[in-house]
Structures are given as structure tokens and as C-alpha cells.
Write a structure and sequence with these properties.
258 residues; alpha/beta; Rossmann fold; 7-stranded parallel sheet; 8 helices; 39% helix; binds nicotinamide-adenine-dinucleotide
């Protein structure tokens, strides 16, 4: 039977992101790439930001209507440059997604000070600088800021002192900014995935015991997929997310229930 919409691709106005201008930091990463491709396929215009020039060029080549900036998220001037690029190229900035990050794992008693500091610098201070620079371009018309937090914002895996602290603090930063900037219609939220096999996690997941331990605390019985996050990303960018502020939405197969 022919559907009423046959010949007319249906776009639900609740989740419509066509024409939205979105800056994606960490766009060269395992999650960032899938997010970038998924948003582009739904008509978003993208500025792709990452510290890895090869990865960013590789992903940009696959995406129409995208411009790029290569720098660290800890460099506030560089983020401002990327924001200006969005406004100059596409006229405005509607959304900003931070999917940068580094992982750290090690016995807390032996963890190097430099590693702890680096994790906080990129995962937390970088997220703050990214929020600050992107909100300036959203003050007139409002906008959406989304950070990739983690189930580690909530659960206390041993040997995750640096990473889990950075992610818990990030989720709380999102609460503070969510409250402070909601009056400007700038909605700040986070997504907390369970483990997904990406360049960040692939090395550790090669160890069968580690993989088994990870799976044993995910009630859904599998690792996450980058694609699992897309519905939540679209929700938080679209009309559907108009009244969501300061939340970390866990997309985790139940990991935070354990
Ligand atoms: N993969 C997982 O299991 C998982 C689970 C929960 C949360 N997360 C979070 O999701 C985000 C993305 O993770 P991923 O799995 O795609 O990791 P990834 O390592 O595949 O990608 C991270 C990207 O960030 C970039 N990056 C790193 N440091 C940077 C910096 N200082 N400035 C700019 N770019 C920088 C890297 O070049 C890379 O392209 C991270 O915040 C991560 O903590 C990942």
C-alpha cells in the first residue's frame, strides 16, 4: 500500500535540523565522525574542529557543506576562530557539540600528576572554553551546546580517577551553565555513553578480560554503538529539545543502573 507521504520525504518538525549550523569539536574521532555524518545527512551545515589534521581532512572529504579548523580545544582563541568561521561561512551558529576527549586509566596510587592534569585540562577546561566561546555567538538567537560526558560522570570504576573526575565535573559544569544560560535560550546538555569501540577504547578492549568486565555491567549485554547516540544528539539540537537544560542523558544500555 502506498503511504500518504510517498514521493515526499517526511521530515518531522519536532526533529528537523535542516539548515542548522553546528560546530563539532572532536569531529575526527570515533563518535565525532558518526555524529558529523549523521547531522550532515539530515541537512546540517558543519564546522569540523579537531587537533588531528589528518583525521579532520579525511572526514571533511566525505561531508558536503563543511569547513574545518585544526587546533586544540584548550586553545580559546582557536575555538573563537572556529566560531567566526561558522558565522562568516554560514551566517550564524545554532549548535555546538564537544566530542573531544582523552582517556586515562591506571592505579590511582601510581597515576602521574601530569596525566591527571592533562585529562582535566582537555576534558574539563577545554569543555568550559568551548562552551564560553560558542555561547557568545548564540546570545542573540539562542542555541544548543552538547558535551560528550560519559557513564563515568556517574559510576566509579576503579583506576579511572582522572577520567571519571573530569567527566563528573563536566556533567556538573553542564548543570551550572544550563542554569546560567537557559535565560538566553542557550540550552547546555551532555550525553553520557557507555563504552563504544572507537580509537579511544579499542586498545583496552582487545584484552578479553577487560572486555568481559565492561560487558558484565551493561544490562543490555553489548557495547554501545556510535549510532546509538544519534537520536539523542538530534533531540538536543532540535525543537524536541526546547525545554531540556543542564541534563546528562545517559545512553548506556543500563550501565548507570548497575
Ligand atoms: N568511546 C567510548 O567508549 C566513550 C564512552 C563514553 C564517553 N566517550 C566520550 O566521547 C568523546 C569522544 O570519544 P571517542 O570515542 O570518539 O574518542 P576518539 O579518541 O575516537 O576521538 C576523540 C577525538 O578528539 C580529538 N582530540 C583529543 N584531544 C583533543 C584536543 N585537545 N583538542 C581537539 N581535539 C582533540 C582527537 O583527535 C579525536 O579525533 C570523548 O569525550 C569521550 O570521553 C567515549
Amino acid at each position: 500500500m502506498a503511504s500518504m507521504n510517498s514521493g515526499h520525504p517526511f521530515c518531522d518538525p519536532v526533529f528537523d535540523i535542516r539548515g542548522k549550523v553546528v560546530l563539532i569539536a572532536g569531529a575526527g574521532g570515533g563518535l565525532g565522525q558518526v555524529i558529523a555524518e549523521s547531522l550532515s545527512a539530515r541537512g546540517a551545515k558543519l564546522v569540523l574542529f579537531d587537533s588531528n589534521p589528518e583525521k579532520i581532512m579525511e572526514i571533511a572529504a566525505r561531508i558536503p557543506e563543511a569547513v574545518t579548523e585544526t587546533a586544540s580545544i584548550t586553545d580559546s582563541m582557536a575555538i573563537e576562530k572556529a566560531v567566526h568561521l561558522a558565522v562568516e561561512t554560514f551566517g550564524e551558529l545554532n549548535g555546538a557539540i564537544n566530542s573531544t576527549g582523552i582517556f586515562s586509566m591506571g592505579e590511582s596510587a601510581l597515576l602521574e600528576e601530569a596525566e591527571f592534569r592533562k585529562c582535566i585540562d582537555i576534558n574539563l577546561t577545554g569543555a568550559f572554553l568551548f562552551s564560553q566561546a560558542t555561547m557568545k555567538a548564540m546570545k542573540e538567537n539562542g542555541g544548543r551546546i552538547i558535551h560528550l560526558a560519559s557513564v563515568s560522570s556517574f559510576v566509579s570504576n576503579t583506576h579511572y580517577a582522572a577520567y571519571a573526575s573530569s567527566k563528573a565535573a563536566l556533567s556538573h559544569l553542564v548543570r551550572v551553565l544550563g542554569r546560567e544560560w537557559a535565560p538566553f535560550n542557550i540550552l547546555v546538555n551532555a550525553i553520557g555513553p557507555a563504552m563504544v569501540e572507537t580509537p579511544m577504547s579499542a586498545g583496552n578492549l582487545q584484552d578479553p578480560e577487560y572486555r568481559e568486565n565492561v560487558l558484565s555491567v551493561i544490562p543490555a549485554g553489548r557495547l554501545g554503538l556510535a549510532e546509538d547516540l544519534i537520536g539523542t544528539v538530534i533531540l538536543l539540537l532540535s525543537n524536541g529539545g526546547s525545554f531540556i537544560a543542564g541534563q546528562t542523558i545517559y545512553v548506556d544500555g543500563g550501565r548507570t543502573l548497575v
